[in-house]
Fold this protein.
Amino acid sequence: MVRPTRQRERDEQSEDETEATEATEGVKHCPECESETLVTSGDGNERSCEECGLIVEEQTIDRGPEWRAFNHQERQSKSRVGAPTTQTMHDKGLTTTIDWKDKDAYGRSLSSKKRSQMNRLRKWQNRIRTKDAGERNLQFALSETDRMASALGVPRSVREVASVIYRRALDEDLIRGRSIEGVATATLYAACRMEGIPRSLEEVAAVSRVERKEIGRTYRYVSQELGLEMEPVDPKQYVPRFCSDLELSEEVQSKANEIIDKTTEMGLLSGKSPTGFAAAAIYAGSLLCNDKQTQREVADVAQVTEVTIRNRYQEQIEAMGVHE
């Protein structure tokens, strides 16, 4: 869009000067007074000299939309861009998708002949989206990751990170000799840890079709080969979710965090399961706050055994000097 210039009228301006002005695109100083104080207009369409007022650059490309919108609804309805690219799809979401609804642009039902044609197009569209076995395996792995992430209730960012890790493992040829589901589950668990989303290995294994032992073995192998920097899991990350599932008060949650902080400083966390440690602290906090929960209830929520809770609980209360 061309904006009218603010250049003052000059009776003596010749054709040569006009050509010289057009040739000044990209200059760093004013060709008239040699000043370097060039300013850009608010809409970015003109650059002028602050000293003499000469328009140095004009008729720049306006990269904004040609339409106007005054609220969010109008902006969404007039926008013509597609969905953003995503790593959670094997083709990054760049291919065409044929809707399963047999309706036209006006919402009217299609004729039987058109429905049959759309069914054939939809079938071939699904076939040509993957060109070889590698892409089909990637499509299956990413769909499994999305299914497990939905079952765990983790945010979209975790799915993106898990997909990126799986693609890296595929590029490094780490999938060979291992099940696709096992590697997909291991990358999802790694993504949860990297994003600070507390999900234990038992919880991930519960929504997977792979055994816990294979997930742990694959996770250690992938993280070592890809050089993933994993910090130890903080037991306090599990406390809010466990307390919410048990419907405990904030007082119990604060007491559990206090117990974890004090016992961690004494070195009791070293070599212990973070989920079991957090569950024992919640059990101890519920007793101290007179909001008692049974060991079975806490163990079911944390997916640990009652024996683990009893052992960690005894260690914690002895370290804090609390007598039953």
